[in-house]
Design brief:
The chain is an alpha/beta fold. It is 39% helix and 15% strand. The protein binds pyridoxal-5'-phosphate (PLP).
Length: 397
Amino acid sequence: MDHPDDPLASAELDTLAVRAGQVRSAEGEHSEALFLTSSYVFGSAREAADRFSGEQPGNVYSRYTNPTVRAFEQRMAALEGAESAVATASGMAAILSTCMALLAQGDHLICSRSVFGTTTVLLSKYMTKFGVDVTFVDPLDEAAVAAAFTPKTRMLFVETPSNPLCEVVDLERMAHLCHQREALFVVDNCFCTPALQLPLRFGADLVIHSATKYIDGQGRCLGGLVAGRQALVDEVLGFIRSAGPTLSAFNAWVFLKGLETLRLRMDAHSSNALALAQWLQVQPGVERVYYAGLPEHPGHALARKQQRGFGGVLSFSVKGGQAEAWKVIDATRLMSLTANLGDAKTTIVHPATTTHGRLTPEQRAEVGIGDNLIRVAVGLEALSDLQRDLTRGLSSL
Ligand SMILES: *Cc1c(COP(=O)(O)O)cnc(C)c1O
């Protein structure tokens, strides 16, 4: 990458998204090759021995390395501005591998209370089983985050903007808190992707992705990724090689194709979401709209500072309760009723009874997820058709 003749050495994100990480095989293929092979053959016993010992670089087995997966990792590292990246079988595998590699019994982890539901389960139910203490905090309350640190705190984990209320966490402030105390700052960048937010620039040590969402962008494959400094990523890589939550070559190939249109899609998701949020604000059945692109959202100024765009996810509360929210959802004909997001197809969901259904009513009230809240992950359909789809239910309230 640092070679003066390398056109990617100082290339912009748009170029890196299309070109970074590609290694052409002897066939001269233009599109990235898909290497569907579990293992690799050696030219001689000597070469096999040298590959196994690591003396000679090269592929041994696809749980360790695969050229298609490597291309995806290198492209993602280039986009995130990271020294290195390692891919995983899913977003959850990325979070698990990071914790398993970098935490040990007796360590303390601080996690934002507004993270993906399964992240909460993984940390509170499973990491604790291995003697890692976990404290959940409101990431917008800096004093509370600072107070949660103990001499054993090794990691702070956040997600921004949050799901479903689009709360924006101050990356620079959180990084500062961590680095004063020698803790690692880990950011789940799934909602923004590197097209809209580069957490490493604001002091994060590691960036986590669920590539299942916007990186694929069309709802086909599961995958994940961890990016950051070489030494940290190498630790995570060591765990993945031994434990096996490896990304499949086929999925890596799909993600490579997805990345080529990432910025165009993220810009389109963002502009569609902003327009829908503005329209929702003036609909009679709507109580409140949560989208950081709206100037009245409490995280707006911060989002402008640390994000290039506001992303595709918004939520809104309707006048009434669960019955009214369900009425609006059930009246849609175009949007997909599913908890997934990051797809060209718009999805709609009732967080209180699905994604956040495992929380107690008190916990939901604390994080501000009411029974009248609806989340929409705005896709790439025409705005007017999305509006018509919501009007059916909203006008009947
Ligand atoms: C979906 C998601 C995950 C988990 O990713 P999987 O690929 O489903 O395992 C983690 N974090 C966020 C923010 C997500 O939306």
